[in-house]
Amino acid sequence: MATGDHGAAEAVTLEESVVGETKQEAHVADDYSPPSHSMEREKTNMEADEKASPMTPDGEEPTDEDKRHLRKVGEKLPVSAFLIAFVELCERFTYYGMGGLFQNYIQRPFDGSQGRGALGMGHQSATGLNLFFQLWAYVSPIIGAIIADQYLGKYVTILVFCVVYIVGLLILLLTSLPVSLAHGAGLGGFIAAAIIIGLGTGGIKSNIAPLIADQYKRRRMEVKTLPTGERVIIDPGVTIQRIYMIFYLCINCGSLSLLATPYMERDVGFWSAYLLCLLIFLCGLTVLLLGKKFYVVRPPEGSVITNAFRAIWMMIRYRSLDAPKPSYQERLGNAQVMKWDDHFVDELKRALIACKVFCFYPVYWVVYGQFSNNFVSQAGDMRGHGIPNDLMQNWDPIAIIVFVPIMDRILYPFLRKMKIRFPPINRITLGFWIGSLAMAYAAIVQHLIYSSGPCYKDPLCSASEDSSGTAQGNNVHIAIQTPAYMLIGISEIFASVTGLEYAYTKAPPSMKSFVQSIYLLTTACGSAIGMALVSVSVDPKIIWMFVGLSCASFVAGALFWFCFHHLNDREDELNEL
């Protein structure tokens, strides 16, 4: 777990964390459930452990022997963490509720009536502009991180970028009105809105993920004896893992906005869906403002990021990771005064380890990005049977909402109870491989589409048009896509959630927003790769793109594990730096 704030504010006493036996039982929730064997057997085991080594007193940090034999548990989450999670839910409701419509908004022509289209730019242009929006939305977190870490702090930065976000939503809403589309304001308005909303998204995302983890104060492991007699380790890493599981659960509850907005798009118009997104975003902003008194708000750390870049330059110049340390320079006889100490350099080295781990993520994000663009177009190539083609995206968050509680409440506690390690590097690798399965399944679906009439490899030909002249696609039911979306959702639980957790726990306390933004930047890299693949995002080439992404994700997962599995053995060491 990362070291907390400097000074007295960092210390968390036993009284602050655990007040009374009754409250302690609430703190540990399901993780503190009694073991299945009898109390007598537990007592015998404890006596054997005592003879093997002296018992660590309650409230003390665990020894290496304790870490090998005692179960690790988490604590109850603070109320402020749930408030911030709700704010993120509202922001993601807005982001996915509008962004999930962009493919149709750009691809299909405006027909002057119900919202079946707007800009009429075709499949390739729609995919390209959609990926541009995603790329910009995940590059801009760098800006938000620098402002937060160096000038305003996370909370104030989030407020500022919320205002930016609202301006972009207003532009999108006004230019999507039928009168605006009829007068040609749609394209210019969309591009302006995409740039402004992308900037607002980035400023929020780079700061809200570390802000929610900041609400949890404990920074060191501690031994505790439960009322049942079982001795356990209160592990901040377990609690942080739970925080990000709940955080991601709220993200995907918010993304269920796509259960409503596609119908609003189809039956009323795009503008109605964008208006709903704006109203929900304002609800989140209200909670953010009213809940301020509950939040742990850390001040900015000054010139930390610029110091970090200076230190990295010294590492490159001297070809040593320890070169920026004042002690190292003293040994070389250099009398220059550093603006940092040796511990700052140790923290920076740990942050660089996290950033190095992220280098394979762009491949995963290319896979993940398919569900909001090419999967939507693929659904449009099939018979919808009354289901809008962009409604199918909801199977991704539904899978996450179903499986996150299973992982958090059943699988992970069971593995910890059985002393089976499932460290971050292994979880991320599994995420890559499940993403590979999703792409393989998408390729099979595409093959079924091309094998079906009436249009075969040209799914939206005139032969599939109904009496109103609307192309209905080939004779494959749209529901066959469901497993592809669900596999991507499950892969996110392992790859994306663990990435958020890793970015927080391995980042220096003063650079958490910045390291989070580096993690988010890998998403932008994935969008850039996706833009390079736009030329093959057409019939009948797209099937080979899915096959290629499946192979790439599997190989990337294997290489990721080969390069970084040794970090699993250093997990506790890195968390406690």
From TrEMBL:
Its recorded name reads POT family-domain-containing protein
Q: How does it sit in the membrane?
A: Multi-pass membrane protein
Where do transmembrane segments lie in this chain? 131-148, 155-175, 187-212, 243-264, 270-290, 348-367, 398-415, 427-450, 484-505, 517-536, 542-564
Which domain of life does this protein belong to? Eukaryota
- Keywords for this entry? Membrane, Transmembrane, Transmembrane helix
Annotated source species: Phyllosticta capitalensis
Gene3D superfamilies linked: MFS general substrate transporter like domains
State the residue spans of region: Disordered: 1-68
> Where is this protein localized, as stated in its record?
Membrane
